[in-house]
Design brief:
The structure holds two protein chains of two kinds. Chain A is α+β, with helices and mostly antiparallel strands. Chain A has seven helices and eleven strands. Chain A starts with a helix and ends in a 9-residue tail after the last strand. In chain A, strands 3-2-4-5-6-7 form a six-stranded mixed sheet. A four-stranded antiparallel sheet of chain A has the order 9-10-8-11, with helices on one face. In chain A, helix 4 (58-66) runs parallel beside helix 5 (79-85). In chain A, 30% of the residues lie in helices and 34% in strands. In chain B, 65% of the residues lie in helices and 1% in strands. Chain B has helices spanning 8-18, 22-34, 38-61, 74-80, 88-105, 121-132, 137-157, 162-185, 190-202, 220-239, 248-261, 278-288; one strand spanning 109-111. Classes of the chains: A alpha+beta, B mainly alpha. Chain A binds chain B through residues 1-17, 20-21, 48, 51-52, 54-57, 60, 72, 74, 76-77, 125-127, and chain B through 4-6, 26, 29-30, 33-34, 41, 44-45, 47-48, 51, 67-68, 103-117, 119, 122, 144-145, 147-149, 151-152, 155-156, 161, 163, 213-217, 287, 290. Strand 1 (11-13) of chain A pairs antiparallel with strand 1 (109-111) of chain B.
Chain lengths: 226, 290
């Protein structure tokens, strides 16, 4: 059984939940992950996104999302004008390559002093999304849960250290995945939790000597990005 | 006591055991599964009903064409015309459903119901009935939750995406939800709701998804109108006492099987049907050069 609001919903700007609502959410997620002020962005579109983006308003939705608009925000329709006003430069690149998914986009975001971040995401249908890659590292961020990502050295004790910190903070883990490139090499831990994680807990996690960096995301609809 | 349901037979059973209408079971199940209060759930439903109404107004009033030029302004043409065959309320449902789908194609705010491509049918039917019979919020809530319960079962037991099950899954589900919703708005019985769903879905089986140029416009926009009237036919038959010989859950199962048997060319890939007609291809080529 689903929630009735997943059946009669999402509330969205048309015309397509995958090509428009999902695109807006991907744009907003990219803005949220980048955190800095975005000066310019290259958007590389793959698959069906590349073929049908104009007719579906995928381009406006992506730009609207990058400006912080939600999928139901009517400003999406005039997102290009809003981008001009907000000094956000953007260009769309239609890739003929097959992406990893029929509806995929790569954001190359640039901020002050050419600070750059590359983010790849997919629109899964019904407005649901998944960010699959950040700066060439494989990740899974859906924007639906509280998500912690650690980039760490693959060695014993790291997972236990993080989970016990969460346990002590009374945070319940709903799902968890660990990936690594090779044995004793760079690894990523993905943790979804049922409740928000305090900044003090995140600081403790960050202090672990085997963790090089850590990211934390709230559900997209709760995240304040404007 | 649990109000959770998986099938329409479950909903029917719960409704009869507790002597409560379908919509009330659906609200109780939502409270049970999400832990939200009735006030919060009904409040969000009414917010969405208001978006139904706003999207009807936007679609009727905005006469501009879509970016592709394939649609837009057709609801307004219908509004100016005097119907000769359909009853006033059925004609209104036709007009409003097309209006909502045009609003969707023109990037107005809509509620996917259950999908964006089929977002006109249930709002079109509900707004027409609500207006015609001067109904209050309570009537719209009856329709909303009845439609949502039906959509919930179809989504989880079968499919509602054109890419998975063709248009029968998409506009077919929307029409089935609408048929049940109308009966509930008019305070029909649980049996009438279920028969309306079965009769509605049975008569859309096999409908394929073949949109021109991959956009949610041709045939989607006018199809939303046609299937709003189809939902009226099913609801009318059910309220007259006609019953479906095939039980509703079996109809849903048949829809699912048929959908998955459809070739991929007829499941939203625009590689068959209307999309690959001479004119369909020409429009797609023109849009590619836009």
């Amino acid at each position: 059984m689903s929630s009735v609001f997943e059946i009669i919903g999402p509330v969205m700007i048309g015309p397509s939940s995958s090509h428009t609502a999902g695109a807006a959410r991907l744009g907003k997620m990219a803005r949220y992950i980048f955190k800095e002020h975005i000066e310019r962005v290259d958007l590389t579109l793959f698959g069906s996104f590349a073929k049908t983006y104009k007719g579906h308003g995928t381009d406006r939705a992506l730009v609207g999302g990058l400006l912080g608009f939600d999928a139901e925000d009517e400003r999406i329709r005039d997102a290009f004008k809003a981008a001009a006003k907000g000094n956000l430069q953007y260009q769309f690149i239609e890739s003929s390559e097959e992406g990893g998914h029929p509806n995929e986009v790569r954001f190359d975001l640039y901020g002050k002093n050419d600070y750059h971040m590359s983010i790849v995401g997919r629109s899964l249908g019904g407005g649901r999304i998944l960010v699959t890659n950040v700066n060439a590292l494989d990740v899974e961020i859906s924007g639906e849960d509280y998500t912690i990502l650690t980039f760490h050295h693959d060695c014993p004790g790291v997972i236990a250290a993080v989970t016990s910190l969460l346990g002590r903070a009374d945070v319940n883990i709903s799902t968890m995945k660990v990936f690594r490139k090779r044995k004793h090499c760079e690894a990523v831990m993905l943790i979804n939790t049922d409740s928000p994680v305090e900044a003090s807990v995140m600081n403790e996690i960050q202090k672990n000597k085997d963790i090089s960096s850590v990211m934390y995301f709230e559900p997209l609809e709760k995240a304040v990005t404007e | 006591m649990s109000y959770l349901y998986d099938t329409l037979a479950d909903l029917m059973h719960l409704s009869e055991t507790h002597e409560l209408p379908v919509w009330e079971i659906v609200i109780r199940a939502e409270m049970e599964s999400t832990g939200e209060t009735r006030e919060a759930i009904e409040g969000e439903a009414l917010r969405r009903v208001q978006i139904f109404k706003d999207s009807v107004v936007n679609g009727v009033e905005d006469r501009k064409r879509t970016m592709s030029g394939m649609s837009g302004g057709q609801a307004h043409v219908l509004l100016e015309h005097t119907p000769r065959l359909l009853s006033p309320v059925a004609y209104k449902a036709l007009t409003y459903a097309i209006a909502v789908n045009e609003a969707n194609a023109k990037m107005f705010r809509v509620v996917a119901c259950p999908t964006a491509g089929s977002c006109g049918v249930m709002p079109g039917c509900m707004c027409a009935v609500g207006e015609e019979f001067e109904m209050d919020d309570a009537a719209f809530l009856r329709g909303f939750f009845t439609g949502a319960g039906i959509g919930n079962v179809i989504t989880n037991q079968a499919c509602v995406a054109g890419a998975v099950g063709g248009c029968q899954a998409e506009v077919g589900s929307a029409a089935a939800m609408a048929a049940g919703a109308i009966v509930a708005m008019l305070e029909g019985t649980t049996k009438q709701v279920m028969n309306a769903v079965a009769l509605c879905l049975k008569n859309v089986l096999g409908l394929v998804c073949d949109p021109v140029a991959g956009l949610v416009e041709v045939p989607c926009v006018k199809r939303n109108g046609v299937y709003a009237v189809h939902a009226f036919s099913a609801a009318e038959m059910a309220m007259a006492g006609l019953i479906s010989q095939i039980p509703v859950d079996e109809v849903i199962e048949a829809m699912n099987r048929i959908g998955r048997a459809l070739p991929s060319s007829l499941r939203e890939t625009s590689e068959g049907g209307l999309a690959t007609t001479e004119t369909g291809r020409r429009i797609a080529a023109q849009l590619q050069d836009m």
